[in-house]
Amino acid sequence: QKSAVRVVFCLCTSGEWQISCLRHTSLRQIKGQLQQSQGKDRTGHNSSRGKGSRDTVMARQHHTAPADRPQAYSDAIFAIVATIMIVPLSGEAVGEVAESQDLLAGLGAIWFKLVIYAVCFGLVSSVWDMHAWVFKILEGVNETIVLLNLGVMMVATFLPYAFLMFAEHPREALAVSLFAGCVALQGFFLLAILWQAFSRPHLLKEEVVQQGKEAMKSQRTRAFIKVLIRPIIVLIAIPVSFAIVEVAWALLVLTVLKPIIYQAIDAAIQCAKGNTQAGSKIMRLSRIVSETSDITRTNAYSDGVYAIVATLIILDICVNNVPESGILDIHGTLAEALVRDANVFLSYSGTFVTICLLWYLHHSMFYHILAQNSLLLTFNKLALLFAGYLPIVFKLTGEFGHLVHDNNSSVGAVQINSATVFFASVFHPAIWITALCKKSKLLRPSAHSVRANVFMFINLLIYPIVSLVIFCVCFVVPVRSTVINGVQIALVAVFILIKLIRNWTQRCMKTDEPKTCPEDGEELSNSQEETEEPADEKEEPEGYDNPVLVIESTVIESTKL
Fold first, then answer.
1. Across-strand partners of 141?
2. Could you give the CA distance from residue 412 to residue 409 in angstroms, rounded to a whole number?
3. Of 28, 58, 125, 551, which is the most exposed, with the fewest CB atoms less than 10 Å away?
4. Tens of pLDDT, residues 412-430
């Protein structure tokens, strides 16, 4: 009770500094302390524990911290791991193309590695999704959960090395086992976090605790099954890789489809218990769009991916395009040496602008999106996946984009650039259409109007249309990299023009609103004046103590005396 009084006193008497210091204090913890002081536990039953037990619970709550910072730290690491795996492939792709003197032949030599990157990106995103789901039921974290979460992050940072081993030696059982072991170890760390959380109810959210012991036990079992599906599949893939490595590949790909597997297992469990109606309800496809979740961590993860991709493209320039002293001896001046790499710098500008505008479109959509369903989250992961290919596209465009061929059937670096940008942007309209289908649950009311949707679709369709046009034109006329990079940079002006038009139409609509009923406004003001005038002339009833009249009468009487 004293702690509650202190919090209320600080909130009432202090300024912003005290409020910011107390904003991480959980009111639920204070409620739990009050319940314990009255001899009750978290579930509402009478507590027969002694003083030592109550002191232990108080000590556990004292070491409880908010879960915000561990989640933000984890989102950053998952975003870095998901995008940094493409860096070694970009240099290898350029080497293969330069050696074979053919773009398609060079990419054909590493096509399997590019596919493995897509699978690994999906696995990392799936583990991040599971991490977000586990922390969604947590109100706070203790030191044990923080350390277990650091274990998840340690294994996640080792994944790029395991990915490269898998990409270089896909038929070696040891390489497959190393990658599968990392994925399994992450699952076991998440399982330990769940066990710790359910064994410490004060770490769970209030709605999880209030549902009762039986419901909590059922939810804990379902959560354990959901987390264990992926580790079990990859553990099966380890011995299988020593016999038939192709089957092990299929099992690793199957882990990306883990939500569907969990849904089928959950439905089978319900049917085995005799609840066939609940089991059939779980298997309905409508669950993909009906169940919603918060978008806070999705925004953080997406921002991290776009930010890292935007900075990765400068690494190759820092390593390969800084003129050395020998280069200056050949070209004479530093300016002439830099002009030699003009195509690379132009490709960097176009790619950077493209990544930033893709993030701008993503930000514009999720500003109006309140929640997400499974289908929307899947489209978002696909958009981030193709955005992760942009560093290798930048490298190819800068090195070989100016080498065009007259053969109409040849596919050059410009077409690869435009195709990648197309797939990185075409899922944005898919995200918005998915949100519109459930706009009452997923969108803010400000995004329900026709005008807002028209301008949103105009913005979202610019990149898919422009990229598709450039890709098709390359079959007719050879297009150099300077053209596509110039178009990408010029699209900034297009988005600014659309914004100005939108603001102008909004101002026109606002100026038209008062003109529709000016007479009503005048009548309203006149009626208000008429209602105010009698109020001034209204006489006060007898016995009404007007303080102004009392003071005036007192002054007059005093002057008379």
1. 65
2. 10
3. 551
4. 788 888 999 999 999 999 9
